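How a chain folds remains the central question behind the approach discussed here. In the encoding step, the backbone of a single protein was reduced to a row of integers, each denoting a local shape. We regard such an encoding as a compact summary of how the chain folds. The sequence in question and its structure tokens are set out directly beneath this paragraph:

___
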Amino acid sequence: MKDIKFAENLKNLRAGKNMTQQQLADLLGVDRRTVSAWEKQICEPNYSTLAKICEIFDETFDNILT
């Protein structure tokens, strides 16, 4: 997975739902700094976390990654 689009998409999806990084982190069971790192392209979520992100935003893997 290439992180440029993922980071952008995640930030846009989260903002579109008026959700803070902390709120998303709480839903995913991760630290807020982890969400921040994803959005800054520092790292990427593992597969199971990515699946949860897709579920939260009702998106497919393809849509969230490209």
